[in-house]
Design a protein that fits this description.
Radius of gyration: 25 Å
Order of helices and strands: HEEEEEEEEEE
CATH class of the largest domain: Mainly Beta
CATH topology of the largest domain: Immunoglobulin-like
Distance between the termini: 91 Å
CATH superfamily of the largest domain: PCu(A)C copper chaperone
Bound molecules: copper (II) ion
Largest sheet: 10 strands, mixed
Length: about 190
C-alpha cells in the first residue's frame, strides 16, 4: 500500500501531463473522424465528381442532354482548388474538341469565347454555370443522354509547375435543383 502510494507520487507529475496529451490526441483523432462523416453527409446534397485526393475537388458536374444531330453541348460543374494554379484545359471522349468558354455581355450582346486558362487560388471555388464559365463540347461523337454519365478530364497546372488531369464524372440532366433555372429550354426529349 505504501509502495503503491510512493509510485503514485513518483510518477504522478509525469503520468498526468502525458495522459493529458494522449487524451488530447485521441480527442483530436475523433474530431477528425466526425469531420469526415460530415463531409460524406454533404455528399447527399453535392454529388462529388472527382477523386478525393485530386488537386481539384469537383462537385455537381452535369451537362445539357442533346437531341438528335446536335453536335455541341455545354457542361457545368463546381470546382474547388486545393492548390494555387491554373485550369488549362479539358478533354472528353465524347467530343472531338473540348474547350473552356466564358459567356459575357458585350454591350447588349451575350458572347462566348474560349479561354486559355482560369487561374485558381488554393481554397477558392469556381462555378461553371449557364451564363458564365462552361465546358464547351464540340464535334460530339455520341449523344449526351440524360442520366448517362460520361467523363471530362480537367487539366490543372499548379503554381509549382506540377501537372495533373482530374477525371470528372458528368451526369447529363437539368443540373443541381438549387439555383438552376430549369424550364428555359423545352424538354428535348419531347419532340
Ligand atoms: Cu461555349
Amino acid at each position: 500500500m505504501n509502495l503503491l502510494k510512493l509510485k503514485g507520487n513518483l510518477f504522478g507529475p509525469f503520468v498526468g501531463p502525458f495522459f493529458g496529451l494522449l487524451l488530447g490526441v485521441v480527442v483530436l483523432g475523433m474530431a477528425g473522424c466526425s469531420k469526415h462523416e460530415d463531409q460524406s453527409a454533404a455528399k447527399a446534397v453535392e454529388v462529388v465528381s472527382s477523386p478525393a485526393d485530386a488537386a481539384l475537388k469537383v462537385v455537381n458536374a452535369w451537362a445539357r442532354p442533346t437531341v438528335a444531330e446536335q453536335m455541341a453541348t455545354g457542361a457545368y460543374m463546381k470546382i474547388t482548388s486545393n492548390k494555387d494554379g491554373m485550369i488549362v484545359g479539358v478533354t472528353s471522349p465524347v467530343a472531338e474538341v473540348a474547350e473552356i468558354h466564358e459567356m459575357k455581355m458585350e454591350g447588349d450582346v451575350m458572347r462566348m469565347r474560349a479561354l486559355e486558362s482560369i487561374p485558381v487560388k488554393a481554397g477558392s471555388t469556381i462555378e461553371l454555370a449557364p451564363g458564365g464559365y462552361h465546358v464547351m463540347l464540340m464535334g460530339l461523337n455520341q449523344a449526351v443522354n440524360e442520366g448517362k454519365a460520361f467523363e471530362i478530364k480537367v487539366q490543372f497546372v499548379g503554381s509549382d509547375g506540377g501537372k495533373s488531369e482530374i477525371p470528372v464524372s458528368v451526369i447529363p440532366g437539368k443540373g443541381p435543383a438549387s439555383g438552376e433555372k430549369s424550364g428555359t429550354h423545352s424538354d428535348p426529349h419531347k419532340h
